[in-house]
Amino acid sequence: ICDFSAADFLFSRIVSPDHVDAMLHAHVLIEIGRHREAATICERLKSEGGYHALAADLIDGGIALDTGDWTTARRLFGSVIDQRTDETAGFAGHAQRLLSEIQPYPENIDTALASVETIRALNLKQAEAYSALSASRFLARSGDPQKGGEFIERAIELLDGQVRNEHLILNNSAMVGLLMETPDYERCAQWLRQALRSSRYDFGDLTILTNLAIANWQAGNINAALDCVARCEPILDEPEFAERDVFWPVCFNLSQILVADGQDEKASSMRRRAQQSDWHEQTDAEYWRYRYTGQGRPEPTLAWMLKFNYHPLALSHWHVDVECVRPRS
Fold this sequence. Notes:
The chain is mainly alpha-helical. The chain has helices at 4-12, 19-31, 35-46, 50-67, 70-82, 89-100, 107-121, 125-141, 145-158, 166-177, 185-196, 202-218, 222-237, 247-260, 264-275, 285-293, 322-325. Helix 10 (166-177) packs antiparallel against helix 11 (185-196) and helix 12 runs antiparallel to helix 13.
């Protein structure tokens, strides 16, 4: 349930961890920014060769993704996909899910859908659900929120009766809902308030609070929106995660709310957080240049997004699903 600090504590208490324990622990460490420890596990796996070496590539790719070395991340995820065997097909599906996060439109849509299909063919229901939840955002942003909603419904069906990341389901339901032709802002806000109750990590909190700020603002509750802005600021000041690409949508949305409240100077300061974040990689760079400056030519696939004066955020599983790491014969 994405309580990564608790997961790290529990993994560290295992006296004789097996390879599955090691792989899962490494992904947990990435989520809380402890990349050196994840890399140490990676080196041990590499020494085993074969299946375990490919697992190490997946971990190294996750570290590169989280630290902004996206050239390396793309290369490693591509390698995992290209070297797919029956035994490592789950790795390939997960690599496709992560690769889609750092690809441009419309290429990312194809890769995200390929992740769903790869994992569906393996009958890994939990992993399929989380790939579907991830893919929902690309469909919604490219102008098909109805299809995005269908993917979320499919994920809910697959996860029925299982321990699941409810905050992720609720957040992405709201994210897609905010991009409908006529959004139900009150319903989205209700989902997001519920999502906050089970979020246990900074990135999740920041994403959910930003979307809740949007929903409250659009529903006419500016004070509740400003409260969300205030709750986001300490996370932006000192996040536990390394990735900074998320600052572009977060700071854009929060600045829009500050402008709506007449706080233009504070809005400008909020936007500078993203512009001065010292993060060299950026998804949809032309789109964000247009959003921040009014200049540039956004990718045509994102034309739907320009109908809205906000940009809702999605959550996805960057840590590998248990089903994907167990060797298949």
